Amino acid sequence: MAGGLFSMDHPWASAFGVLGNIFSFLVFLAPTPTFVRVCRKKSTEGFSSVPYVVALFSCTLWILYAMVKTSSAPLLTINAFGCVVEAAYIVVYLVYAPRPARLRTLASFLLLNVAAFSLVVVVTVVAVAEPRRVKVLGSICLAFSMAVFVAPMSVILVVVKTKSAEFMPFSLSFFLTLSAVAWFFYGLFTKDLYVTVPNIGGFFFGCIQMGLYFCYRKPKTAGGLTILPTSSTAADTAAAAQLAEEVELAAAAGAHAVAVLPASALPVLAELHRMEQEIGTPRKGDVKTI
């Protein structure tokens, strides 16, 4: 498969690689409406840039893995596209974010995408013998991919606690699950354990998120009025702060590792953050707060 994206010598692996590229392409573009809104309002509206910085780091890791392996064209193409998209998101964020958020973003970028990535390159390309490079780099990618699974678990907790999946689009969870299936079979047919294993978790959490969507797609209503909780007591305030912290933790781990694509979608995390802001804010129309 080194000769291109599709190879007749490995038709099944090529087919699932192409499907994985298509689904991942759609997922990468999912946050676009969020950043269009940022540009129109000239404000980041409290969104965190951490998921996009982590996503860029994840893409560079998988690009390095694909280059070292030399026979993973589908991984190389989609992660190259992901790097361009995530870099564009980060640039837009830096333009419109307040100074403290901008400094945090730059610090995160330098820590992950410069320092950490340089360390990985030195360890795998310089310090490790060539026959073991794929194994070492694949292990690093696998460990990073497994670490981000805290994100879908945190998202699940947020949806259960708020009893609302209003800002967790079903279509996004659906395409993330399809992407996990495509990359799982791509790894299976190419006998690539480092691609196969994390996508088992991606499929599992994707199914859970879709199930939660059907359970909580409609918020509680009373007499036709939407009921939104407010934090009026110290205990409620503490609970809300803890919930916000969990969303932030989920965002920090919401990487688009395209060979992984766990159901911790960046657009979902961003919208959940917005939901946190709106929980205590009455909306226009028939809204009742309790």
From TrEMBL:
Annotated transmembrane regions: 12-30, 50-68, 74-97, 109-130, 136-160, 167-189, 195-216
Gene Ontology, cellular component aspect: plasma membrane
Keyword set, alphabetical order: Cell membrane, Membrane, Repeat, Sugar transport, Transmembrane, Transmembrane helix, Transport
Organism superkingdom: Eukaryota
Protein name as it appears in the record: Bidirectional sugar transporter SWEET
Keyword Transcription regulation appears in the UniProt entry: no
InterPro entries on file: SWEET, SWEET_rpt
Bilayer disposition of the protein: Multi-pass membrane protein
Principal location class: membrane
KW Transmembrane (keyword) present: yes
Quaternary state and interactors: Forms homooligomers and/or heterooligomers.
Purpose of the protein: Mediates both low-affinity uptake and efflux of sugar across the membrane. Mediates both low-affinity uptake and efflux of sugar across the plasma membrane.
Family recorded in the similarity comment: Belongs to the SWEET sugar transporter family.
GO molecular function: sugar transmembrane transporter activity
Record's subcellular location: Cell membrane
